[in-house]
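Thread: Modeling a multi-component assembly for a lab meeting

Hi all, long-time lurker, first post. My supervisor asked me to bring a structural picture of a complex we are working on to next week's group meeting, and I have zero experience with this. I have the sequence lines for every component (756 residues in total). Could someone generate the structure of the whole assembly? Inputs are pasted exactly as I received them:
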Amino acid sequence: MNPSINNSGAARGRRAVYVWLLAALAPVVFFLCAFVGAAPLAFGEWSTPQGQAILSLRLSRIICGFMAGAGLACSGVVLQALLRNPLADPYVLGISSGAALGAAAAIMAGAAGVYLLPLCAFAGAAAVLALVLLLARQGGVTNVYSLLLSGIIVGSICASILMLVISIAPIEGWHGITWWMLGNLQVTSLALLAFASALITAGFAGIWLMARKLNALTLGREMAHYLGVRSGPAILWAVVLATISTAAAVAMTGLIGFVGLIIPHLARLVFGPDHRVLVPASALAGGLFLVICDTFARTIMAPVEIPVGVITALIGGPFFLFLLRRRPGGWFS
Amino acid sequence: MNSAFEFHGVRAGYRERPVLEDISLKAGAGEMLALLGPNGAGKSTLFRVLSGLIRPVAGRVMLCGAEVQRLGAARRARLLAVVPQELKMPPAFTVGEMVAMGRVTLLSPWQRPSEEDCKVIERALVYADVNELCDRPFDLLSGGEKQRVLIAMALAQEPQVILMDEPTTHLDPNHSLEIMQIVERLNRERGLTVFMISHDLNLAAEFCRRLVLLDHGRIAADGTPSEVLREETLHKVYHCQMRVQSDPGTGLPFVRPDARHAAGLPGAGGAESGRAIHVIAGGGSGAEVLRRLAFNNYAGVTCGVLNERDTDAQVCEALGIRAALEKPFSPVGHQAFRKAEEMAAMAKTVIVCEVPFGPGNVINLKLAEDALKRGARVLVNNANLQARDYSADQQAVIRIMEMIEQGAEAWNSLHDMMRLIAR
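Re: Modeling a multi-component assembly
Sure thing. I ran the full set together rather than chain by chain. Output:
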């Protein structure tokens, strides 16, 4: 019997071990990040009332970052697999901006309830995605590059509308939303954190369950069909799950770019193209990446906080350019 | 015999553009058949309809006794597998992972393949001869290896019917033969029904006992290779002249497109339209002239008399130019000359090349003289006349000079000749 047939080959085994290592790393990172911050917190102080307050603030923020990062990375994995292009991610395709606009509209309309906010974000994201898909479709064929291009443009338009809304909004405290646009992991409502986390977890589980189908879909829609996958419904489901994850993350944290782009790409390099490994690996890596970025955001210029979106963009932007220069699809072709 | 698939009056196509019209076709289980036809005839569409990717507008498509559109995706994949022409932008999966994907619908999300699955996958790898490539990344393989992996993927589905879209298009002769032998073995040993699109008529005729010829979305012919591969049929479908010969070894029809008689090209028409050209050559003096005429699509070109195995005779054979031939190293005899006379009589133009004339072939000049007399154009080469005349009493020089006096046009370079003839 050829040992590599049942996927227990050496390379795959090693990749699975990396995923477990990543999972084991998560609590360590959480622990370390919880003790780093603007307000000094010694190890002995965590039991004092003040220490506990700081710790719970930081922990909720860490969970928020982890969940948002995981959701964005999962979404990126799905979009890259479906579009068979490493440049796809929820931010580039405008889904994030659509979600942000939906969320902002909800806040403006005074409907910023715990459940309504993510739902409005989802509606905005879905509407933008539909628009982008429609724009990129020419003669029944969707060109990946026109898809990316229209995604970027529609995303920018959404961002501009968002800016307009913010600048004319009379309500006090709106200046905060500018900050939110650049991404902010400060938890405003524990209930929102819980609901968004539940949505992201559900999205992640659904995407992971589709792993084998996603594998087949990376061979192209037609090939997946021949292999016995119902391509149409599978693609629709995957897109819906990716949009839910993105919308939940955006409703919670605002616009954070590049996590959905670089994390799946790096994970693919390290863990290989098999989505059964790639999906959990990306989720873990995305979550940890955002938590670490946020820790930098909190501490680099403490007590001033830099928006976490700035940090991810500063790392992700050059990386994106590097990918573009390196010919898109290095590992896809 | 059980039927593998059936088309009943199928019409299908894409939005606003019907591609297939009234297709009725039935293949028994275990048949090996090829789908032929020019580009755009609807071959790929027929495959897409059969694999359930496109819903027919009218008619029914049955697969192993069940209607394709009613079959669940997983069930359909167990009955029918498709080997695509190529996999564009393949991701970095290893060969083993790719082949295991043939069982994607049978495996749960995380579970490892069962013993049974592994056996099937291993058998597929062995059958397609890719067992050693198992751990190699797919995208680093050669064309032939990739094609074999795609076949292994299809086999891992354990289908009853396998569709192959031009399985040998990008392969060299050796590898395409290898692929065809694998496919033939699958058909013979495992009773797999094989339906393949091919542009290689001869390969199809060699391996498939049944050919289906598609033209403009309709079935133009369906039967054994010798029933389908007929010159008139192929001419009608492919719009170019095909020569069908019988292969002496196998008795199978052997098809060769005949470029010289390609329809619709300038210069075509041949003897019927009175544009025929007769060339008097020999010893390689006419090779370049004949080639130019052929490549400029002058039709109805004839040549002679030549000696067999003469360079010019070989050129004629290679270019498909009719020639009157005499035995090697023999003077032009009566029979060969009569044949050449017939050819030259049809010609509107006779070209005399820079031939060395001797007692054996000087008689060829009579062809030109006769042509001149009946008013045809004669283009005669007058370069180095003295030096290449070995006939008695400088006969050739005298006769050629006479012809020029009587209106034959002289030329001494290929360029001149082509300009004269185009006039």
